[in-house]
Structure formats: structure tokens, C-alpha cells
Design a protein that fits this description.
The chain is mostly helical and about 325 residues long. It is built from 15 helices and eight strands. Strands 1-2 form a two-stranded parallel sheet. Strands 3-4 form a two-stranded parallel sheet.
């Protein structure tokens, strides 16, 4: 989504244009200019600028209420639509949101600011980008997710910071995000990925970590090596810019003490030769899987689901969730 509200001054500088000759269609700006009545009202009220405005909008709300024939208690005002969008989202704190696209970027930015999860519904040009009944059908089951990696801005490995552009949170912010996700949850059951105690720069609180290991249901998601390789290359290599290869090289070099110089040099050569999938497969088979298999074996699983087909796996997980909610599955 593109940010709405064009910066005509920047465009004028970049293309050496006269700003007055540029018409901005990126927001609800009147191309005919300011109304003469508005100009007169601004001039008449110029002496009032010295005073701080009424933060309750008393007179403005009454005027709008009288004109629109609505109760002033049902009127919320803000400094532009963007402020209202952010205020609503921060008040409701939705865990998930279904957004039509294209739309204002502020909806996306507001939801991401409170770590909400977004699913996009692409509007069709053939339908003149109008909403249809299919939009309602895309509202998913009410399943809450505690995404520790998203909260920590790290996928929990040496390479974990690569998939996030923003800075990692402090321990206090991390714990606050966990608390809010639990406090605002509207379901008795929620999903949380089994993580190591350390996730990037932060630590999972003891009571949360112990509950993950000890309590609730455990589902094992299995995936073929081929699909794991493709997904990792997509997230860590293909969706990044060229500078990311140097970042990957720095990360691989950190394994010299564990794997030895010969093995690390082999990995770096594969990276420089563009043999990304071969490199990732070797890393998984020779290092990652043997090291972390013990964390998989420590659980007794209530369900084992193949994750090669994401859509099928999601349906299986939803079916399991429904059965657990109905009490058909015992811990």
C-alpha cells in the first residue's frame, strides 16, 4: 500500500517543477483550492489563534450534531482521518484484521503498531474495486496467536534478525506485548510456537516458558526438507536486497568455532556462488536438525500435521482447535 497524501514540495524539487503547477490527487484535496467562505472564516478568526483551542471540541461537535441531526456523544473528532484510525485501533487492540486492498496505508500501519496480524482481501478491478459478499466469508475463526518471534522481532536463531527491519524491543516491552496478547485474548485456547527460552535479544518469562513445555496441547507440524529449504530461501535470501548476502556471510562466520573453518568456508563459497538452496539444505542436515532435534522429542504430541500444503495444514489445525474447544480432545 502506498502512503496517501502526496509531498508536492519534494516532487517539485526532484523534477524541478513549480509546486503551484502540481495537482495532488493522492488525498481528498480540493483541486479548485480553498473555498472563499472558508478563507473568510479563517480571516475572521485569526485573532483567536493566540488562544489554545478547546480540546473537547464543544462548539464544533454541537455544530456538527445540529447539522447532521445526531447526538454529540456519537461524534469523535481528530486531526485528520489518520489520527482517528490510529486511536480506534489502539483502543480496540485487534489481534487480527481483514483489510481490503487497495486502501489507505494508515489501516495497515495502525494495526502493525499494536502487533496485530493482517490478512489482505484483494479487491477486483472487474468489480470496480467494490466490496462483495466474499469479503465477509474471509473473516476467519476466532483463534488467537501469541507470536513470540514477532514480539521479539527475531526468529530465534543466529539469522533471526534478518527477517525484521525494525529494532528489537527491550525486555520490558517484550513482556508487555506478551501480557497484552493474553489479556486481550477473547478465547480460552490460543496458539503459541514452542521457542527456546531466549528469542533474539530477549528472554521468555519463566512462567510462560514453563507453561509452553508443561501445559496444554502439543501439535507437531512436519514439513519435507525440500519445502523447508524453499521457505527459508524465500524469507532469508530471495525477498532481500543484495546487501543481505554480506549480512548472511557475517552470520555464517559466527559458526567457525562450532563447525570449523573448512565447513564454514564451504558454506560461504556456496553463498557466493549463488547456490542458496544447496547451502540451506546442508546447514539443516549437518547442523540445525541434529542440534535441535532434542527439543522436538521432549513433547508427547496430541496431533502430528503435515505442513507441506499450508492451506490443508491450517484447516487441520482449525479442526483440532474446534475439537479442543468442545472438549473432545483431552490434554
Amino acid at each position: 500500500m502506498a502512503v496517501h497524501g502526496g509531498n508536492t514540495e519534494e516532487i517539485a524539487r526532484k523534477y524541478k517543477l513549480n509546486p503551484s503547477e502540481i495537482i495532488d490527487f493522492s488525498a481528498n484535496i480540493n483541486p479548485l483550492g480553498i473555498s472563499e467562505n472558508v478563507k473568510k472564516a479563517m480571516i475572521d478568526a485569526i485573532d483567536k489563534v493566540v488562544k489554545y483551542p478547546d480540546i473537547t471540541y464543544f462548539d464544533l461537535k454541537n455544530s456538527i450534531g445540529e447539522f447532521e441531526k445526531i447526538n454529540t456523544r456519537n461524534i469523535t473528532l481528530g486531526n485528520g482521518a489518520a489520527e482517528v484510525i490510529f486511536n480506534i485501533v489502539r483502543a480496540l487492540k485487534p489481534k487480527k484484521a481483514l483489510l481490503p486492498a487497495p486502501t489507505f496505508s494508515e489501516y495497515e500501519e495502525a494495526i502493525l503498531s499494536i502487533d496485530g496480524e493482517i490478512e489482505y482481501y484483494n479487491l477486483k478491478e472487474s468489480k470496480n474495486f467494490n466490496l462483495d459478499n466474499e469479503f465477509i466469508g474471509n473473516i476467519k475463526n476466532n483463534i488467537d496467536i501469541v507470536d513470540l518471534e514477532q514480539m521479539a522481532r527475531n526468529t530465534g536463531s543466529v539469522f533471526g534478525f534478518i527477517t525484521y527491519d525494525d529494532k528489537p524491543p527491550s525486555q520490558k516491552t517484550f513482556e508487555t506485548r506478551i501480557f497484552e496478547s493474553l489479556y486481550f485474548s477473547k478465547t480460552d485456547f490460543l496458539f503459541i510456537e514452542s521457542e527456546s527460552k531466549r528469542v533474539g535479544h530477549v528472554l521468555t518469562p519463566n512462567n510462560i516458558y514453563d507453561a509452553i513445555v508443561r501445559d496444554g496441547y502439543h501439535i507437531l507440524l512436519e514439513c519435507s526438507l525440500e519445502n523447508r529449504v524453499k521457505r527459508l530461501c524465500r524469507d532469508y535470501v530471495y525477498n532481500k536486497d543484495e546487501n543481505n548476502l554480506e549480512v548472511l556471510k557475517d552470520c555464517i562466520n559466527k559458526f567457525r568455532k562450532r563447525l570449523g573453518h573448512n565447513k564454514v568456508d564451504e558454506y560461504i563459497n556456496l553463498l557466493e556462488e549463488g547456490k542458496y538452496e544447496e547451502l540451506v539444505e546442508k546447514y539443516l542436515v549437518e547442523y540445525y536438525d541434529p542440534l535441535y532435534m532434542h527439543s522436538v522429542d521432549k513433547y508427547k504430541y496430541n496431533e502430528v500435521i503435515n505442513f507441506d500444503n499450508v492451506d490443508v495444514a491450517v484447516e487441520e489445525v482449525i479442526k483440532f482447535h474446534k475439537s479442543a474447544m468442545e472438549g473432545a480432545i483431552k490434554c
